[in-house]
Design a protein that fits this description.
Layout (H helix, E strand, L loop, with lengths): L5 E4 L5 E6 L4 E9 L7 H15 L4 E9 L2 E10 L2 E10 L4 E10 L2 H14 L4
Antiparallel strand pairs: 1-2, 2-3, 3-7, 4-5, 5-6, 6-7
């Protein structure tokens, strides 16, 4: 995580994340095995967008994909009432799994972008 204001949670069961000490944000990272050797990322993104629309009281939309450590990831984002959500989705193979990255914060949009960019700048696939 980018600074000392974050507290990380263990990720040994395929789910992990972090939260800000002041309660203004959190990061969730899920790795979920797929039921097929050839998962359809477009379909997973559609489902993720539908879920994001149902889970948030403000509009969520599909944004421009982001490159994260050399891997292009579809991006879903939304904001309203001082809250911001950014979701990145990917598929990794061998074994096939989906990665869901979700950052939720409150406060100015510029601070949300700063946190997102700081986290993504340090991301490394293993």
């Amino acid at each position: 995580m980018p600074d000392d204001d974050w507290v990380t949670e263990a990720a040994d069961t395929g789910a992990g994340g972090a939260y800000l000490l002041d309660g203004s944000g959190g990061l969730t990272l899920l790795e979920v095995p797929t039921l097929t050797d050839d998962p359809d990322l477009d379909h997973l993104v559609e489902l993720t967008l539908d879920n994001a629309k149902a889970d948030n009281p403000f509009p969520m939309r599909l944004g421009e994909p982001r490159e994260v450590d050399g891997v292009e990831m579809p991006l879903i984002e939304g904001k309203g009432g001082g809250k911001h959500v950014t979701i990145l989705r990917s598929v990794v193979l061998d074994p096939a799994a989906t990665i869901l990255f979700s950052l939720r914060t409150t406060g100015p949009a510029s601070l949300h972008r700063e946190r997102l960019e700081s986290i993504l700048a340090t991301w490394r696939w293993r």
